[in-house]
Amino acid sequence: MKRILQNGIALAVVVIVLFIVVPLPLPLVDILLVVNISLSMLILVITMTISDALDFSIFPSLLLITTLFRLGLNVSTTRQILGNNGNAGTVIRSFGMMIADQNIVLGVIIFLIIVLVQLIVVTKGAERVSEVAARFTLDAMPGKQMAIDADLSSGLIDEQGAKLRRAKIQMEADFYGAMDGATKFVKGDATLSLIITAINFIGGLILGSLNGVDNVLEVYSIATIGDGLVSQIPSLMISTATAMIVTRSVSSGSLNDDVVQQFASQPKAILTAGMVIGILGLIPGTPHAALLVVGVGLIAAGWWMSGRLERQKAEEQAAIAAAQQPAAEAAAATQPAPGDYYKDINNVYGLLTVDPIEMEFGYSLIPMVDENSGGKLISRIVIFRRQYAQEMGFVIPSIRFHDSSALGTNQYAVKIRGEEVARGEILVDYYLALEPASPAGEIDGIETVEPAYGIPSRWILPENKEMAEIYGYTVIDPLSVMQTHLSEVVRSHAHELLGRSEVIQLVENLKRTNPEVVEEAIPTVLSYANLERILRSLLREGVPIRDLGTILETAVDSLASTKDLDMVTENIRAALSRTITRRFCEHGQLRVVTLDAEVEKRVISSLTKNEQGIYLAMGPDLMQQIVTQLAEFIKKFNDLSQTPIVLTSQVIRIYLSRMLSQFYPNLYVLAFNEVTSDVQIQSLGNVTLSNEPPARPVRKAAAV
User: Fold this and answer.
1) DSSP at 586
2) pTM
3) pLDDT of residue 669
């Protein structure tokens, strides 16, 4: 019994198919017709109460099953009408009498209108909406994937959350793709209903005449119309449900909640409509009573809704004022006058403090930071700090937030060690839409540039968000824009944030788990100052310092043979090859640009040694050739949305990296021994020496 219940749907589909072949008794036909109507009504109600189409993801399959169910019943009722002298059961006769009892011609006309409404209006519209929704959903998938990756990299979501969102995007694509095909069943069902109705009517007249049935026209007309209605009413409800479920993409609740909420938020429109209808009711020749009743009703409803909205706003403002008043009074009571405060010279010294990171805001952006006003920036930074510590092994210092009258109302600025390094501007009530390479359509908005990555973008209104995603734009909320910009600034200046106190704290943390290595290395072999230089060099080039034990062990071994900290750092990078490979490799593949052997020889020959150490004294011609060719290769990396990497030998890596960082700050230079052997290296190009012009011949001097 349990196995039968588990496979009940499959068994039901098989039974439905048998309806086409096996004749059914009239009582069972009546019950199944009522079940068909009830099931269609249930599906329609469900589509109007759900808030997300994926909440009813079985709808495409259910659409096929219900269509097959109706067709099976159609065949059974046709067999009864043609083979039982027009008697197809109580349900069909009741529906037929309800429409065609008084006037058969009127009944036929009403039935045809119902069929044409379903076929031309509802079914055709649902088919078109499903087709467009499927196409736009598939076109928007890359943009949604980029948005998930951006949220993951900024720490807004974890890996599990990213997997769930990616799975939902895939489910949406599968759902709307299935809906695009399933609507063809609805259209075919409506068309076939017309054909079956014609067969029932014409075939009934012929068979009834041959069998000598009394009132053959009336009997078969009522039976045909009843059968058509019993079939078309569920079909119309299913078609309406199909159109309803594919148009629920912008909803945040059930249809009832959305209708009530959105109409109630527009009292002025209701008042205007009521006044217009009332004026029409005063014009001579119009139906005064009906127009005045409707007009007065709309005016009363709009007036009541307007008063309700004003009361809600007043209550919200009063609640905010009541919450802010105690805090303001307490702050005013505890804060001394500026003149009295700075009479104490020790308080003046507090002005000399330089914070590692500061973030200043314009007046309009303060609610995004203030937790008392619902601001979430601080909580997001906490998530980012944890993620960055796990990724890079460095804990970001505390960030100081404060407002600034020197900034515009929508501006913010980021300072490192007291100096501004980045500035941006956001519009709080808008969304930022990042333009794709080839958008499917143009969206209205204010043109701007995304502050973190410099991507051309537009500030768009919230109501245009869904359409922008359909067109392929990546849409980001203002808080995420600001948080992402801050995160990128911190990443690019992490080496400046690492000070002596942070290094000591990292060493003390390692001492808890690996005290032997710390005792051997610090301070007898490696001082805190030199360790700080090494760690800063690694962070400057994006190398994680989380494995501090390996860094100290390699530094101790390297300092036994050389005192050059640059060479020590290169040996540490080689020891961290797995970490570096994981940092820059994607899906087991590393896309790079390489240097021609002749170029490497020229670079090596440009190395010069003096009292301060080794430096690169490269000629301007060679430098110009390398920089120019790399500019073309970097465009390829940008098209692939990947980090540009130059792969070279260990001998020149550090010197080449320092030179190229002046031209391309986001370019990374790796050595061959820093990449593990299990990675597939794909070269996107090779920097070569261009053909130099032949030397100008020297004219010999004439002999004297």
Assistant:
1) B
2) 0.53
3) 92
